[in-house]
Amino acid sequence: MPVLEPLSFECISHSAEQTQRLGVRLAAALPAHAIIALSGPLGAGKTQFARGVGLGWGASQPLRSPTFTLVQEHHRPADHHTLYHIDLYRIERHEDIATLGLDEILDDQTGIAVIEWAERAASLLPEDTIQVRFEIVQENKRRLTFSTQDTATWQILLAFRKNAFGV
Ligand SMILES: Nc1ncnc2c1ncn2[C@@H]1O[C@H](COP(=O)(O)OP(=O)(O)O)[C@@H](O)[C@H]1O
Ligand SMILES: [Mg+2]
């Protein structure tokens, strides 16, 4: 049966800290392998959110906005799993994405991928990707829309929503 309802919900963040905390909460709901696609304009809060995911996941170093590297690998001491922080802002041509080794990253069954400017690789991401779209509403106000096309991943998002918002 086709999925008629979009598997999505939105929320408003009123501060950078709140956006980071949402990332922490999402990380807590994730299985060992997950792909999180962050999209939206510059300054919308993608890196803030990614930092939260890194914290909640247990990365040994804080995630930061990459300057030249497109992929930054983080590890956590507990199980040596990998978090790949990817920023496609500087991708100039779509073909350049091929040089990232995205396939192996997405196939890492004990790895988490957090991708900023993920709209630039949309066609390469699997159905079970967690999409988070960021919109700037006001100076300190952001709308975050969480969605996925996969029903099992939707359950993860529902658990996150319950944990973060109590509904
Ligand atoms: N509600 C909010 N959520 C996230 N960032 C916010 C919020 N309000 C203000 N900000 C500010 O917006 C900027 C977001 O930057 P960043 O996370 O690097 O964005 P992006 O990675 O999307 O380009 C930061 O300077 C942050 O302090
Ligand atoms: Mg960023």
Describe the structure.
With 167 residues, the chain is an alpha/beta fold. It has one domain: 3-Layer(aba) Sandwich (Rossmann fold). 28% of the residues lie in helices and 28% in strands. The protein has four helices and seven strands; from the N terminus they run E-H-E-H-E-E-H-E-E-E-H. Strands 1-7-6-2-5-4-3 form a seven-stranded mixed beta sheet. Strand 4, helix 3 and strand 5 form a beta-alpha-beta unit. Helix 1 packs across helix 2. It is globular, with a radius of gyration of 15 Å. The model has no long low-confidence stretch (mean pLDDT 94). The protein binds adenosine-5'-diphosphate and magnesium ion. The site of magnesium ion (MG) has 5 residues, from helix 2.
What's this, in brief?
With 167 residues, the protein is an alpha/beta fold. It is 28% helix and 28% strand.
How are the SSEs ordered, and which strands pair?
Layout: E1 7-13, H1 16-29, E2 34-39, H2 46-57, E3 71-75, E4 82-87, H3 102-107, E5 111-116, E6 130-138, E7 141-148, H4 151-165
Parallel strand pairs: 2-5, 2-6, 4-5
Antiparallel strand pairs: 1-7, 3-4, 6-7
Helix pairs in contact: 1-2, 1-4
This protein binds adenosine-5'-diphosphate and magnesium ion.
Helical residue percent band: 25-40%
Strand content: 25-35%
CATH topology title = Rossmann fold
CATH level-two architecture: 3-Layer(aba) Sandwich
Order of helices and strands: EHEHEEHEEEH
Which kinds of small molecule does this entry bind, naming each only once?
adenosine-5'-diphosphate, magnesium ion
Classified by CATH, the class is Alpha Beta
User: How large is the count of helical segments?
Assistant: 4
The CATH homologous superfamily name equals P-loop containing nucleotide triphosphate hydrolases
Uncertain regions spanning at least 5 consecutive residues: none
Radius of gyration: 15 Å
Oligomeric state of the chains? single chain
- Distance between the amino and carboxyl termini: 26 Å
Largest sheet: 7 strands, mixed
The tally of strands reads 7
Sheet with most strands: strand arrangement: 1-7-6-2-5-4-3
The helix/strand class is alpha/beta
